[in-house]
Amino acid sequence: MVSVNELRTMYEQMVTARYYEEQLQEEYLVGKQPAFDISAGPIPGELHLAAGHEASSAGVCLHLRDDDTVTAPHRPHHVAIAKGVDLKKMTAEIFGRKTGLCRGKGGHMHLFDPDVNFACSGIIAQGCPPAVGAAMAAKKRNTDSVAVAFLGDGAIDQGGFLESLNLASVHDLPVVFVIEDNDWAISMPKDRVTDVEDGSRRAWGFDLPGERVDSDDAVAVAEAAGKAIARARDGNGPTLLEVQVHRRMGHFMGDAEAYRPEADIERAKQLDSIERIADDLRSHGVEDDELDEIRERAHERVDDAISWAKEQPEPSPEEAYENVFTNPPAKAATDGGNQGGD
Ligand SMILES: Cc1ncc(C[n+]2csc(CCOP(=O)(O)OP(=O)(O)O)c2C)c(N)n1
Ligand SMILES: [Mg+2]
Where is the stretch described as Disordered (predicted)? Predict the structure, then answer.
């Protein structure tokens, strides 16, 4: 049973993530028009927003501690926020600033926060093997930490995911895989590329428990995730969960979604998990005034993080050569790569 305080926590995480992305959306568009120059403006590069996915991250991360590991894919903000990633440093990273989580070199798909064991990556299913590694480390060290790998429905046919399920099962590791099924992988509808409607059935082939939460109801997610995470923490092995979420936006900012039926876009907007959890709170006697207070607190936190990030310095060009595996030959670093004729 989810307590009313847990509902409050999830609501706060969800409204923080939604408002954060609404603000990023505005910042992202600055300077990009009229030709939609993706490299222009204060947030250069791609931006994948997760509006409509918040019930999944809030329900799962409710049960996690800082020493638990979470990996997320290219649509990471809601998960990072629910895991407790430092919002200021994360925002500075998204804005490419020197004080960002990765010194401004990674951008929004490469957020690493060792303080809360969070990582994400733009490579589909890439988070699964490291989550298995973290779970194996926890087991070998005899701790009760767990690992959670978030992935999209488009990642469930990837070798990295299937191999991770196998390794997790063979070694009985404390890891939970969470598929966020938003029915799409960019412009590809799930039913054209995947043989199962219910992705949690992938668990059957690896002799693991698999469960699907059929709606983006944070309470239902919290209940299913609570069981899976307790199972992992108690040394009883991995679980595969799938959560039906909704993509309220395009795949990335600037996606005109010409491939997507209008009715599907509308349906995603109607099914709002944030409205649903607000109703749950009201049915537990929480007044609208308190919901307003929670929202205002979340908005203030986000506004502070964004204004702080925008005041941060950009990295200097020389820093491009720091923290890389291979540096360029000395001459290239000093004369900008002009090898001349010699
Ligand atoms: C290994 C790999 N192949 C292809 C891509 C290009 N790509 C980026 S996002 C994406 C679709 C992902 O869909 P899904 O996993 O369902 O996540 P969603 O975007 O729907 O949240 C693809 C194919 C990639 N990043 N990595
Ligand atoms: Mg998807």
Answer: 309-342
